[in-house]
Amino acid sequence: MIDQAIYRRFNHTVASCFVIYFLFPEYILGFKRVSLVIVFWLSILLIEYFRLRGAFVLDGMRDYESSRVAGFVWFATGTCMILFFYEVGVFPEIFAVSTIIMASLVDPLIGEINKKYGNLKGFIAGIIASVTIYQLIIGVFFYSLVGGIVAVFVERPKFKWLDDDLLIQIFPILVMTLFYFSGLGPDLSVSLEGN
Q1: Pairing assessment for the beta strands 27-28 and 31-32 based on DSSP bridges
Q2: What DSSP string runs through 32-61?
Q3: What is the DSSP string of the chain?
Q4: Is the CB of residue 147 less than 8 Å from the CB of residue 174?
Q5: CA dist., res. 62 & res. 41, Å (int)
Q6: Is residue 92 within 8 Å of 177, Cβ to Cβ?
Q7: Distance from first CA to last CA of the chain, Å, rounded?
Q8: Pairwise CA distance, residues 65 & 154, whole Å
């Protein structure tokens, strides 16, 4: 029998593969690649609609997700928002890639540490891991620290109709982008090629 918690955490980490999107050409079969994002997101919503209607059961669902939107939908929504806003020029590429990877790895890490060692250690591990991941990809400590702290703080509160799988992606990238475009943060190369 599959351990459902481990299965969930594994699936969460696999979501870092979404960054393969940045390797796709701008046009695929005559369509802009952002079309893939829209089709993928609509597919996730369709799967979730039928799951909530009882058409099938997915492994890894928490008990409370039987009657409300599942975490994977919130995560996919956050990732699709990041990719869409990257395509329209809102989010810099380096922030988009690093945030997707950070969220896919740090959120399950926090959950596992919280379960085994308590919330304080989960919080500390989350800060260390998120800052480290951002630093490895972005390479500018100011943004790594800001992004990491914001990510872990917005992951903490639990809401019934809003999930941390969305918040842990959208808030850090928004804050880092605001610092960057306002000129309050240090300059950096915003493409992966420059880092």
Answers
A1: antiparallel
A2: ETHHHHHHHHHHHHHHHHHHHTTS---TT-
A3: ---HHHHHHHHHHHGGGGGGGGGS-SEETTEETHHHHHHHHHHHHHHHHHHHTTS---TT--GGGGSS--HHHHHHHHHHHHHHHHHTTSS-HHHHHHHHHHHHHHHHHHHHHHHHH-HHHHHHHHHHHHHHHHHHHH--HHHHHHHHHHHHHHHSS--SSS-HHHHHHHHHHHHHHHHHHHT-SPP---SGGG-
A4: no
A5: 21
A6: yes
A7: 43
A8: 20
List pLDDT tens digits, range 153-170: 999 888 777 889 999 999
Radius of gyration of the chain from Cα atoms? 17
pTM exceeds 0.90, yes or no: yes
Angle at which helices 141-155 and 93-117 cross, to 10°: 50
User: Rounded to an integer, what distance in angstroms lies between the CA atom of residue 39 and that of residue 149?
Assistant: 32
Do residues 100 and 169 lie in contact, with contact meaning Cβ atoms separated by under 8 Å?
yes
Rounded Cα distance, 155 and 138, in Å: 21
Beta-carbon count within 10 A of 84 CB: 15
* Whether the predicted pLDDT of 1 surpasses 60: no
